[in-house]
């Protein structure tokens, strides 16, 4: 009666689906932050200390 080839672990499948949903939400949040606060490009402004006199 039981067919082991066709068994599905619903707990594992649910965990994968939830993981995918969280990854999707994380990517959306990351894109929103990048639009609001863009990362500085490769150019760095070097702040030199004022010379002591």
Helices and strands in order, then pairings?
Elements: H1 10-36
Index terms:
single chain, 0% strand, mainly alpha, 53 residues
Task: Describe this entry's structure for a reader.
The structure is a single chain. With about 55 residues, the protein is mainly α. The chain has a domain at about 10-35. Helix content is about 50%, strand content about 0%. It is built from 1 helix and no strands. The relative contact order is 0.07. The model has no long low-confidence stretch (mean pLDDT about 80).
Structural class by sheet pairing and helices: mainly alpha
Outline type: rod-shaped
Order of helices and strands: H
| Helix content percent band | 40-55%
**Overall pLDDT confidence:** 81
Q: Main beta sheet, described?
A: none
Short description:
Helix content is 51%, strand content 0%. With 53 residues, the chain is mainly α.
């Amino acid at each position: 009666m039981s067919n082991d080839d066709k068994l599905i672990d619903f707990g594992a499948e649910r965990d994968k689906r939830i993981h995918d949903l969280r990854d999707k939400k994380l990517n959306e949040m990351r894109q929103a932050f990048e639009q609001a606060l863009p990362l500085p490009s490769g150019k760095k402004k070097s702040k030199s200390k004022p010379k002591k006199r």
